[in-house]
Amino acid sequence: MRVLGIDCGSESTGYGVVEMDAEGGLHSVAAGAIRLTGRDRLPARLARVFRELSDVITKYQPSAVAIEDVFYAVNAKSALKLGHVRGVAMLAAASFELPVAEYAPLSIKSAVVGYGKADKVQVQEMVKRLLRLAEVPHPSDVADALAIAICHLHTAGTLNRQRIAT
Length: 166
Description:
- Strand 2 and strand 3 form a beta hairpin.
- Helix 1 (42-60) runs parallel beside helix 2 (76-95), helix 3 crosses helix 5 and helix 4 (120-130) crosses helix 5.
- With 166 residues, this protein is of the alpha/beta class.
- The longest helix has 26 residues, at 140-165.
- It is globular.
- The two termini are 22 Å apart.
- It has one domain (2-165): Nucleotidyltransferase, domain 5 (2-Layer Sandwich).
- The protein is built from five helices and five strands, in the order E-E-E-H-E-H-E-H-H-H.
């Protein structure tokens, strides 16, 4: 199974494609960040996110997309911008008829680190270890996107094993 994890952000949107082999091993296929500039108007930034995520989907052919669930922000304007980017990420996945899974930050950290209140450094280090990378993925948006993909692969594997058992 190959999953595209997306860490939505109004300034930088990270993506990571992770594959699980038949033995349950995890492999990083691709990762990067879509950097957005505040000089561009919001519609232009959203169009860029859509185009680049569509390119990633076309190139790496994931079977599913996973994104971080909505969280509550102190700043309503920032939360609204983030919501726009999340919507565009979902639209890109839906355009390719891919299922989209959403995970709460606590669930992602639990799946990757084993502790729902882990900090960014702990998440980055575990992503590095689980994917057997030479170094910690940078920027943190990329590590988070890989973590989201790993979370989905672990969750999907668990659900599949439960279905088989019943």
